[in-house]
Amino acid sequence: MTAFLVLEDGTVLRGIGFGAEKEAYGEVVFTTAMVGYPESLTDPSYRGQILVETNPLIGNYGVPSKELSENGLPLHYESDEIQVEGFVISRLMRPSHWSSVNNLDEWLRDEGVPGIWGIDTRALVKKLREKGVMIGAIVPEDPEGALERLKRFDYERENFVERVSPSRPVIHEPPKWDETIVVVDMGIKYGILRELLRRNFRLIRIPYDWNVIKAVEAFEASGVFFSNGPGNPALLKEVAKNARKAIDSGIPTMGVCLGEQVLAIADGAEVFKMKYGHRGINKPVKDLRSGKGFVTTQNHGYAIVPESLNEFEVIMVNLDDGTVEGIAHREQPVIATQYHPEASPGPYDSTWVFDEFAKMVRGSADV
């Protein structure tokens, strides 16, 4: 079936529709990852966005089985459903892989998410790099009408976190655990949960707007984790106030992606929207403390203004553009990264950050 990708600047790209035959509106972003489309599609940080794949061949290893799991969490999914608003690819492939239980077309159709293929994604990404991310729509017909309708979509003012955060606490327990972590769930990736569970923590995922300190007291927790998530961090002022309480309490705390930005805002820092963000599994980061560089998985469209930090110091930077990739509190046991140390997908160069947090929680870190 014919489908169209419409951008806010008036660009209309004609392609072939797959997945659900419906309209979708969102911020059009791209990832440079060569593999990992099941993880990307189910990442809650993509809520409100239409994802463009730069790898030209997508779908060739199908859709993996959710029966492949660890501690009750599927190994190749980052949530229980597809989170993107729409999916844009160059060529849709037939699957051929031992673990595949479905194909990409049927999976998107079953979950009500539209896709479009046959698009020149190289030209599209070039446009997004030059002009910055844009609001767009995938529609099966009437691209002119879609151009008018997408003007009503405002990614900056929409609180997407409330759409992906749980409405009540969710508990995860590994076979053996010794400490409890309260996770402020703003749209956490299952990969983060898997890494924390591997370190023998019991996890209590709470709604993003709950009082963190009361949750720590109620569950007798030894640490706090602020998760990744979608949308504009400037909208999460109440979460930042909770983060401030966690910092002041002295409880070991870690943040990832949106979690880092919330902790920075709690410190009085500013964040800014990047032209087209960092999304992919090949992003180089340097640890300023050790001087070492490593490759990371990233998915963010906002970054911290380093000069606006007060109690935090920058401990890691992006080697491509110098943006902040890690911060640490000068006095309290608090660390955070802009990149995703759990990978999922991607290189596992930075899972040691979870070990550092675990040492903090168990009282053996040099903080």
Can you characterise this structure?
It is a single chain. With 367 residues, this protein is α/β, with parallel strands linked by helices. It folds into two domains: 2-154, Glucose Oxidase, domain 1 (3-Layer(bba) Sandwich), CATH 3.50.30.20; 161-361, Class I glutamine amidotransferase (GATase) domain (Rossmann fold). Helix content is 23%, strand content 34%. It contains ten helices and 23 strands. Strands 14-16-15-17-18-23-22-21-19-20 form a ten-stranded mixed sheet, with helices on both faces. The protein has a seven-stranded mixed beta barrel with strand order 1-2-12-9-4-3-13. Strands 5-10 form a two-stranded parallel sheet. A hairpin with a 2-residue loop joins strand 7 and strand 8 (73-74). Helix 8 crosses helix 9. The longest helix is centred in the middle third of the chain and has 13 residues, at 237-249.
Layout of secondary structure:
Blueprint: E1 2-7, E2 12-19, E3 24-31, H1 37-41, E4 49-53, E5 57-58, E6 63-64, E7 69-70, E8 73-74, E9 86-88, E10 91-92, E11 100-102, H2 104-110, E12 114-117, H3 121-131, E13 134-139, H4 143-149, H5 161-164, E14 170-172, E15 179-185, H6 190-198, E16 201-207, H7 212-219, E17 223-226, H8 237-249, E18 253-256, H9 258-266, E19 271-287, E20 293-304, E21 312-318, E22 324-329, E23 334-337, H10 352-361
Parallel strand pairs: 3-4, 4-9, 5-10, 9-12, 15-16, 15-17, 17-18, 18-23
Antiparallel strand pairs: 1-2, 1-13, 2-12, 3-13, 6-11, 7-8, 14-16, 19-20, 19-21, 21-22, 22-23
Structure summarized in a few sentences:
The chain is 23% helix and 34% strand. The chain has ten helices and 23 strands. The protein has helices at 37-41, 104-110, 121-131, 143-149, 161-164, 190-198, 212-219, 237-249, 258-266, 352-361; strands at residues 2-7, 12-19, 24-31, 49-53, 57-58, 63-64, 69-70, 73-74, 86-88, 91-92, 100-102, 114-117, 134-139, 170-172, 179-185, 201-207, 223-226, 253-256, 271-287, 293-304, 312-318, 324-329, 334-337.
